[in-house]
Amino acid sequence: MANVLPILRQVAPVREVFAAEHLAELARQALVAEAELTPKPGLVDRRGTGAHSDLSLDLMRRSASAIAPFFADMATAAQSMPFSNALRTEVAAIGRAAEFAMLQVTGGSNSHKGAIWILGLLVTAAGQDIESNPDTIAKGAGLLASLPDSVRPQLVSHGDMVRARYGVTGARGEAIANFPHIVHVGLPALLAARKKGCTETNSRLSALLDIMARLDDTCVLYRGGAEGLTIVQKGASDILHAGGPGSAAGDQAMLQLDHELFIRTISPGGSADILAATLFLDALERGQYAVQEDNSLSEGDPYGAN
Ligand SMILES: CC(C)(COP(=O)(O)OP(=O)(O)OC[C@H]1O[C@@H](n2cnc3c(N)ncnc32)[C@H](O[C@H]2O[C@H](COP(=O)(O)OP(=O)(O)OP(=O)(O)O)[C@@H](O)[C@H]2O)[C@@H]1O)[C@@H](O)C(=O)NCCC(=O)NCCS
Ligand SMILES: Nc1ncnc2[nH]cnc12
Fold first, then answer.
1. Does pLDDT of 306 surpass 60?
2. Separation of 159 CA from ligand 1 center, angstroms?
3. How many CB atoms lie within 10 A of CB 224?
4. Which of 28, 40, 44 is the pocket-test mutation for ligand 2 (most atoms within 8 Å of CB)?
5. Ligand 1 neighbourhood includes 56 CB (under 6 angstroms)
6. 31 lines ligand 1 (CB under 6 A)
7. CB under 8 Å to 84, separation ≥6 — which residues?
8. Calpha distance 301→295 (Å, rounded)
């Protein structure tokens, strides 16, 4: 079904929907593209495990594959019921099943909890209308996030602890505010770097650093406190001011920040999730479907970084 989408796009004038499997595959590929992007400060990448002792690139890839079918289920749900509390409840149940599948494949490590939330909401919103753009998809996803989560368990998450201590709004707040760090930070930074002639890898790294410089990442706050967040935000900002990825000073500053985060075991995991979602919406917007003309799916880095 996914492989007919480019054809549908040409012949169907309006309100054709994205195939659920296609959205899921695109989301999986965005997660793999984020994980493989190298070098990322403190994060798992092609060089190694960053500030993590329980994650690896192979695990991130397997986690992405394990959760992709749940994205397809979310898009299918979006196509079979209207925007409503019932859809929110259905998607929450699928999201929790995806978290369970993630924990099973990683042996209990949290590889993509934030990504399941963000991409799950975006895939659901994108599942409804092919004429959408990043802004309207983010708004739809934000609206869905603001509906009540009727079966929310009474467990206290790391995000809950950090929110109570530092007064930040975390992953839930990001969604309810319509994903400002994707729409107003990640995407503009990605496009600006490409326009300047940066390589695709450096454009994505620039987008990640811009996100890191501004996001109140609860993953950073939980591991490193307020001081850790300052180190991440100032460090990312300094790299960009030094010339950004691809400049000698920028690359040097990036290695220094990577080292500091490694020593302190601080990981900007929330920023990584926001970058994956940025790549997903960018690919949708550009019509860059990773389905090949011979109906196969691209291998390696399907988002084509260089
Ligand atoms: C709304 C939920 C995301 C739950 O939110 P909550 O804040 O209560 O949960 P957390 O457990 O804290 O997870 C939030 C994850 O979101 C990422 N994140 C952090 N800050 C932001 C931000 N400002 N904006 C957006 N996203 C953010 C981050 O995920 C990444 O970090 C993880 C790695 O962290 P790590 O420290 O290694 O792992 P931990 O287990 O936390 O600690 P250790 O023990 O290892 O030290 C990695 O997963 C990245 O993805 C935060 O971790 C949502 O889950 C929810 O409500 N779900 C219910 C189902 C539902 O409604 N679904 C609907 C659609 S799917
Ligand atoms: N590349 C990465 N490294 C560590 N945590 C992550 N969470 C999402 N992407 C990640």
1. no
2. 7
3. 22
4. 44
5. no
6. no
7. 147
8. 17
Nearest Cα neighbor of 199 from 297, 49, 301, 274 is 301
The atom number, within ligand 2, closest to the CA of 31 reads: 9
Q: Which residue's CA is the closest to the ligand 1 atom numbered 8?
A: 159
- Give the mutation target among 45, 59, 60 for probing the ligand 2 site: most ligand atoms within 8 A of CB: 60
Q: Does this model's pTM top 0.80?
A: yes
Which tens digits make up the pLDDT trace of 138-162? 999 999 999 998 777 768 899 999 9
Position 286 scores a pLDDT of 87
Tens digit of each residue's pLDDT (9 = 90 or more) over 1-55: 333 333 333 333 334 567 899 999 999 999 999 999 999 999 999 999 999 999 9
Other beta carbons less than 10 A from residue 301's beta carbon: 15
Name the residue at shortest CA distance from atom 16 of ligand 1. 114
User: Which of 44, 64, 47 shows the shortest CA–CA distance to 56?
Assistant: 44
What ipTM does the predicted assembly reach? 0.96
What domains, with CATH codes, occur in the chain?
17-149+157-285 (1.10.4200.10)
